[in-house]
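help with this:

***
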Amino acid sequence: MTAPSVHEEPKATGTPEYVYAEDLMPDQAWDLGSHRLTEEEIVSFARQWDPHFFHIDPERAAAEGHFGGLIASGLQTLGVYQRLWAEQLSGHLRLIAGAGLDDVRFRRPVRPGDRLTGRSAVTSVDLEPARRRGRVGLRGALRNQHGEPVLGLASSVYVEMRVA
C-alpha cells in the first residue's frame, strides 16, 4: 500500500499543507535524500566530539586500525540521518519534539567519500487526543552508495493533532 506523501504542493496562500499525527499510518515511508561525507567532515567532527585515532588520523587508522583506514564516528553517521530527516520531514510534519531513540545499529563503517542515503517509515501511531498529540514510532536507515546498510534505528516523535 502506498501512503500519501508528506510533501504537498503549497496552498495558493503560500502556506504549506501540514501533516498531523492522525494523517500518518504504519508503513508510510519517505526517502530522505543523501549526503556525501568528506574526509575533512569526518576528521573535523571527530576532533571535536569523538577523537579516536581511527576517526582523526588517516595514517594511523590505515596502519593500526581494524578497518584499514579512516572511518566516520557512529555519532556523526547518526547526525547525518537526523539532518536528512529534519530537512525532508520536519517542515511538513507538525512536529512537537523527539520522544526517544532506540535500537541504534551501526551496520558497517562509513568511509570518506561515502554517499549516505536515508529512508524513514512509520511503525506506529498512538493518538493522545486529550493532549492534542500523537506519539509516532519510526524506523530509519542509511545506506551507502553500494546499497549496503550502514545505520538502522528506531525512534519516536510527538506530532500535533488537528485542533477540533
Observations:
- Residues 21-36+72-160 form a domain with the Thiol Ester Dehydrase; Chain A fold (CATH 3.10.129.10).
- Confidence is low (pLDDT under 50) at residues 1-15.
- The radius of gyration is 18 Å.
